[in-house]
Specification:
Number of strands: 0
Largest sheet: none
Mean pLDDT: 84
Structural class: mainly alpha
Strand content: under 5%
Radius of gyration: 33 Å
Number of domains: 1
Number of helices: 2
Shape: rod-shaped
């Protein structure tokens, strides 16, 4: 999250610097307003691009984490199934031994 704050601060600083540079330039008012409008549009476009990149990055990380969670869940389910089968098998062995009157080991 620090990177996002730093990026926003840098972009805001650039916008303020560009605005002051234009305002103190020796041009007439209409030219200055046009320059401010162009700089504002460029700033908005840059900010939109950075936002899109940020959202794409977050989406990729979310999808990766989601996939890892699904894989871990499937692995845990398989392990639980294996242990259940093993327990059933052991229970069947004990039941057979008990049925035949054999001593059951603990």
């Amino acid at each position: 999250m620090k990177t996002g704050k730093i990026l926003l601060g840098v972009l805001a600083g650039m916008a303020v610097g560009a605005t002051f540079g234009i305002l103190f330039a020796p041009d007439k008012g209409s030219t200055t307003r046009k320059k401010i409008a162009k700089k504002g549009e460029k700033f908005a476009d840059d900010l939109e691009g950075k936002y899109d990149d940020f959202i794409e990055n977050i989406t990729e990380k979310y999808e990766d984490l989601k996939e890892k969670a699904i894989n871990m869940t499937e692995k845990a389910k398989r392990k639980a199934d294996e242990l259940t089968e093993k327990a059933k098998h052991e229970a069947e062995k004990i039941a057979k031994k008990t049925k035949h009157g054999e001593e059951v080991e603990a």
